[in-house]
Amino acid sequence: MTRPFVVKGEERLFTETGFLVLANRLSAAAAAAVMLVAFDGVRALAPQAPIDRFPLVSVANLLATTCQYEALKWISLPTQALLKCAKLIPVMVLSTLLSKRTYTTIDYSSAVLVGLGTASFMNGNITSRVADQGNSWIGLVLMFGNIFFDSLLMAYQERLFLGYRLSSNSQMLYVNLFSGLLSLLSCIPGGALRSSLSLLSSSRQFARELCLLTLGAVSAQFFITSTIKEFGAVFFGTVITVQQVASVMVSSFVIGTKLSPWQWFSCGIVFTALSARNLSKWIHALRSRRKQAQRGPEISQVDDQQHGKQSVVVGISERDD
Q1: Angstrom distance (rounded) from CA 16 to CA 205
Q2: Which residue has the higher pLDDT, 128 or 289?
Q3: pTM (2 d.p.)
Q4: How far apart are CA 139 and CA 79, in angstroms?
């Protein structure tokens, strides 16, 4: 999106976001279909939830991904990564409204600190290398769209798993089929599909990078759907937030994106808030295990006493007989 590809001695800049979404979604749908057939047979391809439940999830999926790719034309990768951290709050709100989940004060406090740290990061340079300095607000608007639609996507995915006995592969198949169809319809009218296929057939570098992007997107989809099904949307949001903070650091050292001391401090606020939240969750889980371990012998003693009483009663009844 920010680096041109050389085709017959000429440089061509790829800007067709819809084609990237189309390639990712069709590849993910194909991978999910293969997984379903391999583990459960051809009958597993039948939808495990009403078909009308998938289009809304697909629309949210499509809009979130499109906003994410388009935003990179206007803002830098570290900026996008930090903005993604802020979606912890809308994920909580939407999960509460749609899935009736409840969260603790620590959850909301850490989410607020993540939001404040992300906001303070905006005081430094956030513009992409191919955009003008004054146009970064376009990328910010797109990222807010990405945050909203991505939060809506995860909340609806969680609602699907709670409402139906739905496997992650089945959801991947039908959500990506609908998203791929919508992406195809958006690529045809403006000639984006034709120009993208032309570049794909002319540039090996573009084909190689598209394959790598698609492979990463498909792997991420399997991780996303499985994590949301097993642990919930907020846990997944926390994992992704840590990943985004790490990507900021890798981007700075590998790609050479320069961050100001204040921006590094903002990253520290985000990482510290999430670490404190995870530590609190870990301590709470440890205490719960200890309580269960303490209650275990008591329960077994009660069971033994009840079993002894039953034995005595049986012995008396046998004597009466």
Answers
A1: 16
A2: 289
A3: 0.64
A4: 10
